[in-house]
Every structure is written in structure tokens, then in C-alpha cells.
Amino acid sequence: MVSLVTRYSRSAHLQKLRTHSGIPRRMGIPGDKATSLWGMTVQYSMESASSLIVFAYEGVPFLNEDQERELCQCISSGVLFSGLHRPLDESFIQSLCSMVATWYVSSSVGQTFTLHQQPSDGKLWNDFIIQTEIRKRFPEVWTSIDPFKNIAIERITPERRKELEMKRESDKERDQERLKQSLLGFTRVFRVMREYQKPLVGHNMLMDLLFLFDKFIHPLPIKYCSFKKQLHEIFPKIFDTKHMAFKTRKVLERILRRDINGPVSLMQLCHILESGRVTNSVMHMPKISFAKGFDRYLSKDAPHEAGFDSYQSGISEELFMYQPGYSGSAEGSMLCYTGINMAIVGQAEGAYCITQSLDGRDPPITRPEHLFVTCRKRSQRLNIQQLAEWFSSYGTVDVQLKNSRTALVAAGNFSCAKAILTAFQGHHYIRVTRYHFWKHSPAAKLVLWSGLVLSGGICIWAFASLIKTDS
């Protein structure tokens, strides 16, 4: 699902949101097993009127550059029209040809016959294959599409057939281009966005970016750095609202006059930005409306539904543009970073533990130091479940037991680490401190003691040698 946001009126800040579903189409390209299997499953469900995949009836196809290139080669060579690879059901093609054969034996030159078909997904693609098959089986007929989008068949003479064949050769490239454009589908919109380098907006969107790259550009490269470089060249402006919320948390807390505890989900972020305290503090707040026929989210929320999430991401980014402290004009200016950083969730509850940049080298990682936990008494032992239960109430944590008496704790953010240190400052069972490598690491202690023993031994040997020399 992709929500396309269009500014309808600059003065009124009126916007219209449209949500579209993308779905792969069965093309019959040899070797395209994943797309073929998925397309077959979806198309079979569509033809069977399955209620489980109703969304597919209005789905828009898509191809990446490699698939488009392979498709053109298969169309030119005629591979897609052989019985081995073509996507149409062979029994369906045979039934149509049987109807044509029944009419053909009793027809004369000049008579016509119409194949009435039900509207279906990929009709242009199906009609192209059906017409090719009928012309191949019946050398004295010609096919065309009538004004009602049905296949019209006419009985003609062999001489007329040769004339039409010669004319068809001149129109062949045009027909193949129309066929290819019908299968490109949403890729055509994507390429317009790419040409004009439109900004992309999402929430925690690493997987979305990987999906877009793989489905609309070409298969993912082996190296992640290659993916980042190519993606940044295509879309230099990418905004992750989760990262933006993380960077503007202090501003929002000041406006709301309360703390925002823990990681913020997309729905929570949208509710915060639409709250009265935030909207009342901003002038020229944009008015957002739905396009006709796309207002299903007006009356109810649908969290984790792709269309609803993309809609809320667009709203959140739009509202970020008008936050106090970022206004550069009467209408506000976009909150934009020199390096668009994308926060990747590293813990189950969404703590920001890794920050990655799409426009070059990753920036320095900013996260709290590990916490070191020890027992206060030598007879006591640590329990990892108990530690996790104690610390998890303050935020996202990861507990690693080093031995029966020591443990390391990785906190999701600085506020979580500070809260744990404060809460367990005088705890009766455990002692919690900041982790220092040279103080708490057994390897560091071994190195220090080994160095001390070695240097002490060298000193004793040197002193003994000196005494021996004097004597």
C-alpha cells in the first residue's frame, strides 16, 4: 500500500490522500518462480471470487528493471505465447478455440463471431495471448478488439490475411509496448517519483525501502553499502518519522508539558501531533481531507494495515513541518536533516540502539554504557529472570549473565539507564554501577595483574643483578 499525498491548494493547505494496493501479476517468464507462484495463487483466488483476497481486484501490477528487460526479451522471442510458459489456463484457451472451431466450419468469408469474456485482471495481457493462439490455429481468420472490449473474429481470404499480417508487423512494436506498459503498472508512477526525486516518508521504514528497491528498481545488492549508495542517488530525501520523533522528543515534551515515556508507536505519534496542545500552538496548520472513494480511514482506525500506516506516516511528517522552533516562514519550513538518519529498532519494544545513515558513512553510535551488576554478599547468586523482571519496568533492557555473581545490562536509552542506576542505588541484594572495562572485565584484570607481576619480576631481577654487580 502506498499513500500519495498531493497539495491541492497552497493557501488552504488542503491535501488529498489516495491509497493504492500493489500486487504482482502472473506473466509466465521462465525462471520467475516466486512471482509466478504468488501471481498464480492470487489470480486463482480472484477468479474464484475468494473473499480473502478482495484487495487484489483493484491491485496495480509492478515490475523492476530486470523483470522488464526479461519480459521484453520473452515477448520479442514469442516464449510467452508457448504452451509451456504462458500464464493462461490451457483448458480455458482450448474451450475458446473449440467455440471458434464450431463457428468456423459453418462460416463463410466476411462473417464475424464475437468471444464475450468476463472482465478480468490483466485483460489486455490475456487478449494478446488469446488472439495470438487463434490466429495461429486458424489461418483464414483475423482477430481484433471491438468497442465493447470483446474479441471479434472475422473469416477472411488467404490474400487478405497476408495483407493484415504485413500491416501487423508495422504495428507490432506499438502493441508490444502497450502490453509492457499494462504490466508495468505502478512502476510507471514510481519512475515519475524517481525522475523528480520526490521525498519518501515512512515510519521505521528499513523493510519498506528494501521492498521498494527490490520490486521497483532491481534485486537487492549483496552489500548493504551498495544498497545505501544506490538508494540515496535515486531518492536523496527520505524521512523516517520514527527517527524524527526521537530527535524532537524534547520539543514535543515541552509543548505537551509532560514526559513521553518509552518508544513512540506510529499511532501514538500521530495522536500526539494531532492533540490540542500541539495544534493550538501552530499557525497555518494544514487541513487534510480524503479523495473521493478513499475515505475508509475517516471513521475508524486500522493499525498495522499498510494503507493506514502509510497514511499516518504522511500525516505525521506533514505535522512535523509546522512544529514551533522549525518555522522559517508564515507557513513553516520542513524539518530536514543534512544527513537523513534512519533509526533501526534493535530491541523488541523499539529502543533506538543503532543509527544508520543513507547518505554515506554511518554516524557515531550514541547509546548508554552497559551497566554492571554484582551481588552485595559473596553467598548470594544472580537470577537472570529476576534481573530482567526488575529492570524491564524502566525500559527496554538486555541482560547477559557473565557468571553466578555478575551480569551485564544493556539499556535501550539514556533515561532507562539513569532510572535503573537511581532506583537500585541502595538495593539490599544487588549493586548496579556503570561498566568500566579496566575495572570490571576479567580479561582486563588478567592483563593488569600479568603486567604487574611481569614488571615486578623485571624490577626484582634488575635489582638483584645490580646488587650482584656491586658485590
Automatic annotation (TrEMBL):
<dbReference type="GO" id="GO:0005634">
    <property type="term" value="C:nucleus"/>
</dbReference>
<comment type="similarity">
    <text>Belongs to the CAF1 family.</text>
</comment>
<dbReference type="GO" id="GO:0000175">
    <property type="term" value="F:3'-5'-RNA exonuclease activity"/>
</dbReference>
<keyword id="KW-1133">Transmembrane helix</keyword>
<dbReference type="GO" id="GO:1990431">
    <property type="term" value="P:priRNA 3'-end processing"/>
</dbReference>
<dbReference type="GO" id="GO:0005783">
    <property type="term" value="C:endoplasmic reticulum"/>
</dbReference>
<keyword id="KW-0472">Membrane</keyword>
<dbReference type="GO" id="GO:0000289">
    <property type="term" value="P:nuclear-transcribed mRNA poly(A) tail shortening"/>
</dbReference>
<keyword id="KW-0812">Transmembrane</keyword>
<dbReference type="InterPro" id="IPR051181">
    <property type="entry name" value="CAF1_poly(A)_ribonucleases"/>
</dbReference>
<dbReference type="GO" id="GO:1990432">
    <property type="term" value="P:siRNA 3'-end processing"/>
</dbReference>
<dbReference type="InterPro" id="IPR036397">
    <property type="entry name" value="RNaseH_sf"/>
</dbReference>
<dbReference type="Pfam" id="PF04857">
    <property type="entry name" value="CAF1"/>
</dbReference>
<feature type="transmembrane region" description="Helical">
    <location>
        <begin position="446"/>
        <end position="467"/>
    </location>
</feature>
<dbReference type="InterPro" id="IPR012337">
    <property type="entry name" value="RNaseH-like_sf"/>
</dbReference>
<dbReference type="InterPro" id="IPR006941">
    <property type="entry name" value="RNase_CAF1"/>
</dbReference>
<dbReference type="GO" id="GO:0003723">
    <property type="term" value="F:RNA binding"/>
</dbReference>
<protein>
    <submittedName>
        <fullName>Uncharacterized protein</fullName>
    </submittedName>
</protein>
